[in-house]
Design goal:
Elements: H1 2-30, E1 35-40, H2 47-60, E2 65-70, H3 75-84, E3 89-91, H4 93-108, E4 114-118, H5 135-142, E5 146-151, H6 157-169, E6 175-183, H7 186-195, E7 200-205, H8 208-217, H9 229-239, H10 242-245, H11 271-282
Parallel strand pairs: 1-4, 1-5, 2-3, 2-4, 5-6, 6-7
Length: about 280
């Protein structure tokens, strides 16, 4: 009798937690806010520097920015937190499942004015040659627009071929436009714009100081580095169209209203509960 009552209370508690969490998710979806995912053609194109600059520029405008990082990396999120003043959350479909990615995203977004997600590696690079854990997979799970960072040093029309390939490779990814890095001159930018099909949201000039800073970002934690948000913010404000970025919609529509059914999330577990669950699976 006691055991039956205990199980009943546990089920009731779990149900209550789930209803509360679903209600929280529903509330976060009611107010649509701008959201953008910064992706790259490959590692080393300047994603982190551009992401931090964008976050700093948005904060300088007085906006509350909620940062995220695709994958399990803990170094980049520490820099996000240093700039935004809010914890940066990891979004990793392999480790937390698609439902876990949605849950982490929407549970953290409350109180924010804009969401900025930094991708990992190249846009389509996932585990073992698949899309699992890739930036593209997260973009599709969350249904948010992507800005592709292209290092255009030493190229003109070839950038358009890269853009076309990335835009057409997976129609499920909402590639909204590009951010061009290491642009040589106004003439160089004019050539690039004349052949690119998607809107150019930013054109960042070659900047040796910024490049040197970028090289060291992945080697130190955010709290170990003295960030100068003003320099980062100014660099992006001068070379990117922040107003146009803020027009990007977070999602095509609210889940549960004419779109795909909103997933039901399992109740959140504390770490002891998670550990016990994993041990039970191994027995």
């Amino acid at each position: 009798m006691e055991g039956s009552l205990e199980r009943s209370l546990e089920r009731s508690s779990e149900s209550s937690i789930e209803r509360s969490h679903d209600s929280s998710i529903e509330g976060s979806l009611k107010g649509s806010i701008p959201a953008v995912l910064i992706a790259g053609t490959h590692s080393g194109v300047g994603k982190t520097t551009i992401t931090l600059g964008l976050m700093a520029a948005l904060r300088a405008r007085g906006l509350v920015v909620q940062p995220y990082k695709v994958g399990p990396d803990f170094i980049d999120p520490s820099h996000h937190t240093a700039i935004c003043g809010r914890p940066s959350f990891n979004l990793d479909p392999f480790m937390m499942s698609e439902e876990g990615v949605r849950r982490s995203f929407f549970s953290a977004i409350e109180g924010a004015d804009v969401a900025v997600v930094e991708g990992v590696m190249g846009l389509f690079d996932g585990m073992d040659g698949t899309e699992v854990g890739s930036t593209a997979q997260v973009a599709k799970i969350l249904d948010i627009p992507v800005l592709l960072v292209i290092n255009v040093h030493g190229m003109s029309r070839s950038a358009a071929a890269m853009e076309l390939g990335f835009a057409s490779y997976d129609p499920g990814v909402r590639l909204a436009g590009t951010i061009l890095n290491r642009v040589g001159s106004k003439r160089h930018l004019d050539m690039l714009k004349s052949c690119l099909a998607k809107p150019v949201f930013g054109a960042l000039p070659r900047d040796k100081e910024m490049e040197m800073k970028s090289r060291h970002l992945g080697l130190v934690m955010g709290f170990e580095k003295d960030h100068d948000p003003e320099i980062l913010a100014t660099f992006l404000e001068e070379n990117a169209d922040i107003d146009m970025i803020l027009t990007l919609p977070g999602q095509r529509g609210r889940r549960g209203e004419g779109g795909a059914a909103r997933p039901r999330f399992p109740p959140l577990l504390n770490w002891q509960g998670q550990r016990q669950m994993e041990m039970d699976r191994c027995e």
